[in-house]
Every structure is written in structure tokens, then in C-alpha cells.
């Protein structure tokens, strides 16, 4: 289909297709350990299922809500009986919790930095500074701050890097919206989210430069109809035909 916004690729997909099917032999991740942050719901859950379909031997799900983590784990174990699934309840920016999870998990092959957060869309002039900054620092309780899109990615990568196997990979789930001009209707009012995701992409660049044995990539999906998107009410302004299928890989090939 034709891309609904300026695209870096000539062909735009918003549903999966045979060339990227996780069941293709050349895409096998047999005997690999896969870690997915934000793995209990939305895109994280579908990423975990795709790696299970690709033959992963062990999948590790990290997230804040044990109930959704358990649901995804049960679904994977039911459909892919040979896959071992473990869950770890922790916020990705909680250094102590993530450090303990990294020690328990041990050796790994692919780390998916998927967890993220959105803010309500507003022009900078009308944005609440605290709400804008919560994309970098998310307050969930008295004097407790969870730093998600930037610090969370850094804390998670830092904790797991020492346990990586040879030829390991880190994949950061970013957003296609950062490639759009700020004047684009889809991007209007999303300065907090976009700025945080650009910072995350630069962080991955540093991780790659500092660890030449790693394969590091930032992927940029289109718009997904997830709980996170619905929470900001922005989805009602988007043509449903533009939405990515949650079971697809990133939209652009």
C-alpha cells in the first residue's frame, strides 16, 4: 500500500507477509534465549510469540504487571510446547530489580527493548512540564519515579550486557513518528514522546559503538492500536486503515 505519511522506503506494509514469516528456516532462532521488555501485552506480547514461532528455546518476559506477563507466557507455552518461558516483574528503570532479573536470566542472545510510555498530545506552549517530562520520568507512586523511554533502556541494557552470548543482538523498538516533520498532523503535539525516542535511538548508537561484537538496531514500527495508544485518545484521529497489524513486524521493509 501507499505509505500514509512520508516514508523512507518505497514499499509500505502494515500486515505481515511471507518474506518475514518467523517460520522461515533462514530466520530461525533455534537454541536462542530471547528477552522482551514490556512483554506482557501489546507489541511486546506479539514479539515474544513471533520469536517462539521462530524456534527460540527460551523466552524471558519482563514487565510491571505479573498478570499480563503470565497470560502471555501461558499462551506461548500452550501454542509452542517446546519453548521455556519465564517472567520477571520489574520496571525497566528499577536498577535493583533489573539487576536481579539479569542475574537470574544469565546468558542471552537477543534483548528487545520494547517497553515505552506516551504522553497526552499537546503543543509545547500548552504542555504541562511535569506531564511532558514523565515520558523521561514516570511517576507511579509517592516519591517513586520510573524512567522509561530513555533511562529504562539504558538501565536494562547496562544490566544485561555482561551476560550476553557471542554475536548477541539488541533491538530497540522505536517509532516511525520520529521520521516525520513536526508539522505533520500525526506528529503534532507529540514532542515529549518524539524527543524521548530520538534520545533512545542515540543511546543505541552509543551501545553499538562501544560494543562492536553486538548487533544493535533501532526498529521503527508505524501506528499500532495498543493500550498505550488508546490511553492518549489520539487513535480516534487516525484512519484505521493506516494502523499496523499488531501481529506484523515493523511496517516498512
From TrEMBL:
GO terms for molecular function: oxidoreductase activity, acting on NAD(P)H, oxygen as acceptor; oxidoreductase activity, acting on the CH-OH group of donors, NAD or NADP as acceptor. InterPro entries: NAD(P)-bd_dom_sf, SDR_fam. It holds the Pfam family adh_short. Keywords: Oxidoreductase. Gene3D superfamilies: NAD(P)-binding Rossmann-like Domain. Belongs to the short-chain dehydrogenases/reductases (SDR) family. This is NAD(P)-binding protein.
